[in-house]
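Sanity check record (used in CI):
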Amino acid sequence: MAEITEARQLVDDLAANCTAMDRCRIGVEHETFLFTREDRRSLPYEGSAGIRAVLEAFQAFGWRPTLEGGQLIGLTRGGAGITLEPAGQLELSGTPWEDLHGVHAELATHRRELSEVARALGLGTLALGFAPEWTRREMDWVPKSRYRIMRGYMPRVGVHGKDMMTRTCAFQLNLDFCSEADMRAKFRVAMALQPLVMVALANSPFVEGRDSGLTSYRNYVWLHTDSARCGLLPLALSPDLAFASYVERALDVPMYSVARHGAHVDLAGRRFRDLMRGALPELPGERPSLEDWKAHLNTLMHDVRLKDHLELRGNDALGLEHSLALAAFWTGLLYDRQALEGALSLVADCDVARLNQLRHELPRYGLADGEHIPVAGLYAADSFREALERALALAEAGLRRRHRLDAQGRDERHYLRPLQALVELGRSPAEHWRARFRGRWRSDLRPLYEADGL
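Expected output for Glutamate--cysteine ligase:
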């Protein structure tokens, strides 16, 4: 495997991922909490109804095992994978699809298979951004060497890194870019407009059995995880954003580790550019491979990040309909040239400092606040709600122009409707759960575990 010695090699690798418009795909990553029906506990890795047993049960559906050090840590089937987050949160890394109909079919299949496995093992699932009751001490750790390294490093760079690892779940969307200019436009729009859907689809109001006072406790946790690699990336709104500038910044973001001989070598806090010089004492004289670089890019966890595609990471885990609605929103905005141009106009004067301020205020906002969230210096709109409605209209028009039909002759716009309905109602999922918690549930979270988990 070729050694990486120059930044130009890394720039060229990013540029090689430019994809023709008619070949751009949509991929999703859906994370889910699992719990025991009997006592609503999170799962250990071991045991007859533990995480490993879940992965073993999935193999009946044709999934193939992935091992590390003899331990079962994931599954693959075709172009998809099932992986484990640090405390056993189950993540579906989906196949890239040419339209949302394929995404829907895959998520529906995953929902069916997961439900069958969970029912057989006496388990339930939760599609929420943050564990509603479990403490950090209750969470078991998956036996992956990379997570052991991160676990030791996180307290050095933030106060909530371990909470991020063990008690959060997300829904993420992967989209392609056609050129460096197209990447720049999509990155800017995605970073600037993330707050709109982060508020509209906030889905984690509870922490350790109580109302946190926030609509997305998960987003609050991410803001206090690691400022070098989380939250807003100012470069995304700069005209200087390019493959080369992104590479230069990534070279100086502290590393976690590199994989060697089936395990991970602890390089926490080291710089990738020093590894390129063969100057790390842990690996004297050794230079990285392209696989090392790709693994490092995967540790940059901003709300939007660049790899061989753009990954939009800002949202809490969601149920099936709202997951598809979020995918429809971004597909309509970013995969139609006219909609993308309209979105660029909407964020043309977006100021990095103002966006960063909004990003830090977001966890407490709900859709009920849509008329009062300040947007001066952010969006070409008079209110947050108006900006969201304009973005939704652009997305819907983009989906209409895409004209991708399913077997019933429907285009992709119907996937957007659950998000449109939330905006019309003026209540995010978090606000829905909070109203029930304060009302008929009488501050008891037990009914939450009976909700549909995916």
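The chain has one domain: 7-447. If this sentence no longer matches the regenerated tokens, the check is flagged for review.
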